[in-house]
Amino acid sequence: MKTDLNKIMQDRNIDALLVLGDAEHNAPMYYLTGGGHVNAATLIKPRGEEATLFHNDMEREEAAKSKLKTIPYSKYPLKTLMKEAKEKKSNFGALRLQKMLEDCGVTSGKIGVYGHTDLSNSFSMLTAAQKLMPEIEFIGESGTDSVFLQAMETKTEDEIARIREMGRITTEVVGKVKAFLAEHAVDENEVLLQTDGKPLTIADVKAKINLWLAERGAENPEATIFAIGRDAGIPHSVGTESDLIRLGKTIVFDIFPCEAGGGYFYDFTRTWCLGYAPEAEQKLYDEVREVYEKVEAKLESGIPFGELQRITCELFEAQGHATPLHTDAPQEGYVHSVGHGLGVNIHEKPWARMKTKGNTLQSGVVFTLEPGLYYPSKGMGVRIENTYWARPDGSFEMLAEFDFGLVVKMRG
Amino acid sequence: MKTDLNKIMQDRNIDALLVLGDAEHNAPMYYLTGGGHVNAATLIKPRGEEATLFHNDMEREEAAKSKLKTIPYSKYPLKTLMKEAKEKKSNFGALRLQKMLEDCGVTSGKIGVYGHTDLSNSFSMLTAAQKLMPEIEFIGESGTDSVFLQAMETKTEDEIARIREMGRITTEVVGKVKAFLAEHAVDENEVLLQTDGKPLTIADVKAKINLWLAERGAENPEATIFAIGRDAGIPHSVGTESDLIRLGKTIVFDIFPCEAGGGYFYDFTRTWCLGYAPEAEQKLYDEVREVYEKVEAKLESGIPFGELQRITCELFEAQGHATPLHTDAPQEGYVHSVGHGLGVNIHEKPWARMKTKGNTLQSGVVFTLEPGLYYPSKGMGVRIENTYWARPDGSFEMLAEFDFGLVVKMRG
Questions:
Q1: CA B38, B44, B45: angle at the middle one, nearest 5?
Q2: Rounded to two decimals, what is the model's pTM?
Q3: Contacts with B234 from chain A: Cβ below 8 Å
Q4: Domain of A239: which CATH number?
Q5: What is the pLDDT of residue A240?
């Protein structure tokens, strides 16, 4: 949780956090500022002290909404800095950063740098800043384990309320998509037809999804997976826009929207066969469903997430499928992880990758369970996914309910 | 243009480009790959040679859509790299990067690093990679001038077609917003009312904007400015969600959506007074409109963009307003630049900041003209903005037309 930041900084021997970039669509900056139209900002948080947000003058009111201490960039006049940069053969950004750090009382120690932002400009500035301030060490942290990812791993009740609301919106939209598909007529080739007689395409369905999300104040910056047949057999294929929708083919519908502005995410997947499920598709679904239920039954407060991944692999191998447990990067079978944490990042701690330490289902974490089987060569794939919260009382709560059924009955 | 990349790399003495991150909402990666659901990718382009896109195995089909040469990360097995990382006390990402660079024939020289991506992880990897490969120099470039920004500065006809289409969508949505506002009834305090009798809020209007953009396949990752009264007087205030909409107050409506997935942007602003315009508001509008038309008349192929900024400042100062020409960071008056280039970035070259060299309105550039006046202390602000293309024949084309009028006649 955010209140753990100082403790985590101490454990990692980090003296200050430096976060660069916009307040939105930038997880660490959003986490500390709460978003808003604040662009190209700089946030400095010394260990044990409050954070200061440095911002463009034009965005002073947006910056103030963060409730943090704010300082406009005009405090560091461009002309003076430009002259100094020329004299010292350094760069403007590095010199300004030095002054901002001084104003926060940071003149030595280890500074962790963060932000989903422009790498080129930041790298250029930090390289120059490192030369300018030899008594400071600028360090990056891994994309899978950092001060922020560790703090974000456990959620407050407020954060849970926001994720739960995104879950409500997500499943409401999934319900609308299901009803929308069901009301279509089909032609003699089992292709869904629109009222004007033209076939319905994946692009048409995605347009509806975006519309229904926007209506509810959500956005999907990471796009939506709506993949049919062979594409459904490739876990991260988002689907082919021009593909038609047919009866009896597996459709993997994986939707992971966030609050507008880049806030909290939800993650949810269902696999559907419209009209009917052929025997092979039904069997694949039943196998995933069986594993899903067995793994869900293994949820236990504090269990390593990697342990659930091992169990999932063993269950799928018992069914005769290849998994990462005994196959390197399998192309078919069970080819990914059983889940991941989520919050202001769509993927964050805890991780279910095998052998990763310290990623347990401790109280406060929010994570997905999403076993799946993929056979692109057979033109099919199945995944079932829900998002869970490890409650303080040791139980697990699925944050949004929706029926699991494979076959969608057509009414058109 | 993209075809200039090798020449620009040569001019800047850069031997290879290294782009990190997702294909979407990441301008340099989008520019070279065309987008798609390709996450945490690595792109390497040696000077004079084709680019190679390295990607997660699960996203092989999405990666293939880029038409670039692709190599899945599984070519560099995790287990071997982890072992090597331990032995060499380096990190996995740096070692893999070294192997990817070798596979592209890059073993020495200057490598520019790019990407709108996770700074912490990238900085950590690049710091380790720099130690591992002393014969290579990793460099960042400025956020205002880089190989990419120089290439992106001039557009192909294909890019113009996409920006023009975004202009059509943008102005269509602006038209819908205008008609939507006009049909509302007002109460005795001149506040707009919804059909259920509740007052209309900025949040309600923004929900409609998001909806109408989504319906047209656009998104607005940078949010929309819809600010009334005092907020309209603060150029980058996005507006207060709970604010009511009243007659006779300036509303600054600045909308800058992009293609879904983070493609090409459009940028457009109108200022409206609903019902009627009080004298002071009308005067402020007339002054901005006058300057707009005078500056537009000065458009000339090859003119430095900063020259237009100087002219704009002089015109506003002649009207008695403070401007950056003779006031440092003015809080009221004309407080920003006359425009900026745009493309896959909402802000890119050419820049209109004074004294910046090499930012001219040469053939092929796309840019905004957006003079404005801001008086938060008087509860008002006015901006007018359109996007232009400097055509190959030396003329300038406004890429989407929309009436300039201040007063919106109410029909409710």
A1: 120
A2: 0.93
A3: 58, 60-61
A4: 3.90.230.10
A5: 87
